[in-house]
Amino acid sequence: MTGPGNTRTAAGTAGAPLTGLRVLDLATLFAGPLAATMLGDFGAEVIKVEHPSRPDPSRGHGPSKNGVGLWWKLLGRNKRAITLDLSRPGGRATLLRLAAGADVIIENFRPGTLEKWDLGWEELSAANPRLVLTRVTGFGQFGPYAHRPGFGTLAEAMSGFAALTGEPDAPPTLPPFGLADSIAALATSYAVMTALAARDRTGEGQVVDMAIIEPILTVLGPQPLWYDQLGYVQERTGNRSANNAPRNTYRTADGTWVAVSTSAQSVAERVVRLVGRPDLIDEPWFVTGAGRAAHADVLDTAVGTWIAARSRTDVLAAFEKAEAAVAPVQDVRDVLTDPQYQALDTVTTVDDPELGPIRMQNVLFRLSATPGAIRWSGRPHGADTEAVLTELGLTPADLEALRTEGVL
User: Fold this and answer.
1) Residue 4 in this model has a pLDDT that exceeds 50
2) Could you tell me the pTM of the whole model?
3) Which residues contact 60 (CB under 8 A, 6 or more apart)?
């Protein structure tokens, strides 16, 4: 069986599953825009709408090269970039014209902001009854926290993620990247497609209310159920698991690290046989994951001592031969040379007009018949304003009037 291979970086949208879908991306930093990126990767026409003097902060977030923000090249890919000041009458009128021909709007203003500009659901749905308005905020559209500024970091703290992360005797740990935002982006793209599927049946659009604090809570597993039924509160265990062992990171003889997982009983048995401790299999506690977790010190000593005497190459080869689960702990340099990632084309090269060839993550998954593609990287601020608005029917005089008003 052959897969789509490098067709994920093909030039056009012909055959892409979301071809014909138009998305207006009004959101900033990071969940909403990333959801729009995911839709654009599979053929949707995404129009990024930014303020003329306050662009999406991701353009200046993190490292840059030659004054060009690198994060934006990833987040802005497959999007046409235009500017509109939505708070001005001309901006409002232009957005309503765009909305009339759109399928989806993604926004992340604080609740009430669009309504203040007379661009709420009532006005937008009147312009286009089939529109799906997707509202991505920290805390949702209602409730006591709805009007607070919300960021992924707050979701990582509130959801219980930080309380679970880190060593037992160390402070709660926040991730050094946008974890909650990225999870919310995945959930948002799913929510959009769900709403569009409903529209196919009913002919009517609707509002999607996505609170960033919720998807991350979902991926943390059955903690509310455990507490509700048992009063059980999961605690920080570092790299260990309360459900199985050995499960940890281990240092090799050449100073690198590997991660070992034994979620399956058969794999746990293979690991202890490999490290020369088959006697542990006969222990009464070894037959369950919880039992092994309760004896993690014994198992970590056995596995850690064996790994510490060998190079990472030898460890990985031995584990593979034994059909035991192991992976190297890699940083981005290792990722870019990893043969499995290379085979999947997970990090691919894109030609960028400003920077030349650049490498970034490829589209999220492979479809054998209708693959997605990176058609272009993030465009300069407002680069497509004139083209998009001309396609909308605005004349040069209209554009000049909007410039005079300060809308563009």
Assistant:
1) no
2) 0.93
3) 69
Q: Is residue 254 flagged as an active site residue?
A: no
The DSSP call for residue 163 is H
Closest among 160, 88, 74, 169 to 364, alpha carbons compared: 74
Under 8 Å between Cβ of 270 and 324: yes
Distance CA 356, CA 374 (A): 15
- Residue 338's contacts (CB-CB under 8 Å, 6 or more residues apart) are 330
Phi, psi of 314 (to 5 degrees): -70, -40
Among 239, 408, 225, 247, residue whose Cα is nearest residue 324 = 247
Q: Look at the block and give the residue holding tokens 């990632």.
A: 341
Cα distances (Å, whole numbers) of residue 392 to 88, 267, 388: 19, 60, 6
What value does the mean pLDDT take over residues 308-319? 97
- With beta carbons less than 8 A apart as the criterion, state whether 134 and 187 touch: no
Residue in this structure with the two tokens 């007379």, named with its chain if needed: 118
b/e 155-187 (16+ beta carbons within 10 angstroms → b): bbebbbbbbbbeeeeeeebbeeebbbbbbbbbb
1 pLDDT band, cuts 50/70/90, is very low
Which position among 25, 41, 85, 181 bears the catalytic label? 181
Q: How many angstroms separate the CA atoms of 401 and 38, rounded?
A: 34
Question: Is residue 50 helix, strand or coil?
Answer: strand
